[in-house]
């Protein structure tokens, strides 16, 4: 069993007497453990973050330099962090390495981002300047699908803006984030980034804690609503990045063979455990069979296995409840008339593996279509007209992202304009960049991350208005 990785509080390693197991989803067996943060330790993390804020907020150039050095340190530690991420999360090692590199990319992007104060007036009468000021301590809470990159989406802009942070990863995937805290501890001033770990109640204790001025949360819609309620009595600022049920609409000029590979990986990347993965495909009736078969062919060729095996393309589901949920969704759909053209069952043996599954004949109203499946299962639904497809694509409380695919990209873009969501892609999906804002419409979120919009969300406006008369 690997050693316990300590928490980072006030720049130092902090262990606890209490700990919880971390399970390798490829075996179903515990392989390490993480500290269970006590209330007193959480208080200490908040206190040290508050202390550090007094100095950290003052020197923007120093913050930029330190974030650049942080990016270098993360890159240098790729081989220490990535295998841990694979072992606790399940994803292929190459993807874990890419995720570590994305942390460095985000740190560097926000270190270099230029956002000038806005001068509204500057004449003999008056000088009016609009500044962005940091908020204070940020409580950051992340899920188990991309523990590191989603943490970086918070750490990089929050710290660049002058805030300090207490970060809590999911109890399913705490280790890579704890390791990240250790890697950054020698570079960041003590208390600027504190990493704590624990089970779900620790998240609730963070959101109701009196110190943080902002909660930056990524996770499910259900938990997001608790977070919003917990923030309200103290009027804490919130950014909520929540679940999605992204539709992909294929237009009738699409070539199913040509798009199948890209469309498949838009749905099955990270084994379908992506908030903004394609979760429903709407195909024109005229091309329905061809689309189903083209996707099924890619699914049949995808290599499922342990993330540590270099040949693996699809790892296990991250945890047993999620594997059971995916299994139940498929069983429910099949019992109501859908057909698993390929897949439709667990992979025999240990671990939380599930065969990549393409469903034909699933209909709106089935849970696998209406809810976020968050796993390697994709329902393909026929539509009769583009208006019908759009109505069904938009007819949900989710609104994270969506895509439209077709040979005539202008026509596809016009349809994409009609999607009610935070990001609408044309002939692609899951294309994310640090400078591109990302957030959800409707129940998929409140606020955005990334780009200068994401940086602003860790600030508040201050007006400096000076009379010259
Ligand atoms: P989750 O909501 O169960 O947990 C997310 C985090 O919240 C974990 O760290 C958990 O410990 C913590 N938590 C649990 N209860 C809490 C409470 N009452 N108060 C505060 N924190 C609490 O989500 P999950 O199962 O870990 O992740 C999967 C979900 O995350 C999916 O719905 C997915 O779509 C969503 N997600 C969204 C985005 C996005 O950017 N929109 C990105 C990735 C994942």
TrEMBL record:
The keyword Transferase does not apply. Belongs to the aldehyde dehydrogenase family. SUPFAM superfamilies: ALDH-like. The active site is at residue 241. Coiled coil: none annotated. The lineage of its organism: Bacteria, Bacillati, Actinomycetota, Actinomycetes, Pseudonocardiales. This is Aldehyde dehydrogenase family protein. It holds the Pfam family Aldedh. PROSITE patterns: ALDEHYDE_DEHYDR_CYS, ALDEHYDE_DEHYDR_GLU. Keywords: Oxidoreductase. InterPro entries: Ald_DH/histidinol_DH, Ald_DH_C, Ald_DH_CS_CYS, Ald_DH_CS_GLU, Ald_DH_N, Aldehyde_DH_dom, LUC3-like. Residues 18-463 form the Aldehyde dehydrogenase domain.
């Amino acid at each position: 069993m690997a050693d316990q990785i300590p928490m980072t509080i006030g720049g130092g390693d902090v262990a606890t007497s209490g700990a919880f197991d971390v399970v390798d989803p490829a075996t179903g067996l515990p392989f390490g453990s993480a500290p269970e943060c006590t209330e007193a330790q959480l208080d200490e993390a908040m206190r040290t973050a508050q202390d550090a804020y007094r100095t950290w907020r003052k020197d923007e150039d120093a913050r930029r330099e330190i974030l650049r050095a942080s990016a270098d340190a993360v890159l240098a530690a790729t081989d220490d962090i990535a295998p841990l991420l694979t072992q606790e999360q399940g994803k292929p090692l190459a993807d874990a390495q890419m995720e570590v590199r994305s942390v460095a990319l985000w740190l560097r992007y926000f270190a270099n981002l230029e956002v000038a104060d806005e001068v509204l007036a500057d004449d003999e009468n008056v000088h009016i300047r609009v500044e962005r000021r940091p908020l204070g301590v940020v409580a950051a809470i992340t899920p188990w699908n991309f523990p590191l990159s989603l943490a970086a989406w918070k750490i990089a802009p929050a710290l660049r803006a002058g805030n300090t942070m207490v970060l809590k990863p999911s109890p399913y995937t705490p280790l890579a984030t704890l390791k990240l805290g250790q890697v950054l501890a020698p570079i960041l001033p003590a208390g600027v980034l504190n990493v704590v770990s624990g089970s779900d109640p620790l998240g609730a204790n963070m959101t109701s804690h009196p110190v943080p001025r902002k909660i930056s949360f990524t996770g499910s819609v259900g938990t997001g609503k608790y977070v919003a309620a917990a923030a309200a009595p103290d009027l804490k600022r919130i950014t909520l990045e929540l679940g999605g049920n992204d539709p992909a609409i294929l237009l009738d000029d699409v070539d199913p063979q040509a798009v199948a590979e890209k469309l498949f990986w838009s749905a099955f990347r990270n084994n379908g455990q992506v908030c903004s993965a394609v979760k429903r495909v709407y195909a024109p009736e005229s091309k329905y069979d061809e689309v189903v078969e083209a996707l099924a062919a890619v699914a049949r060729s995808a290599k499922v296995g342990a993330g540590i095996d270099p040949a693996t393309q699809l790892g296990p589901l991250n945890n047993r409840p999620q594997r059971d949920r995916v299994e139940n969704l498929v069983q429910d759909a099949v019992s109501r008339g859908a057909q698993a053209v390929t897949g439709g069952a667990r992979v025999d043996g240990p671990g939380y593996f599930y065969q990549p599954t393409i469903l034909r004949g699933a209909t709106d109203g089935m849970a696998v279509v209406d809810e976020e499946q968050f796993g390697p299962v994709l329902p393909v639904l026929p539509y009769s007209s583009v208006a019908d497809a759009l109505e069904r694509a938009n007819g949900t409380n989710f609104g994270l992202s969506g895509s439209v695919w077709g040979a005539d990209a202008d026509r596809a873009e016009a349809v994409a304009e009609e999607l009610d969501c935070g990001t609408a892609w044309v002939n692609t999906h899951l294309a994310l960049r640090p400078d591109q804002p990302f957030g959800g419409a409707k129940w998929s979120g409140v606020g955005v991350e990334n780009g200068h919009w994401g940086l602003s969300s860790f600030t508040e406006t201050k007006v400096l208005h000076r009379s010259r008369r």
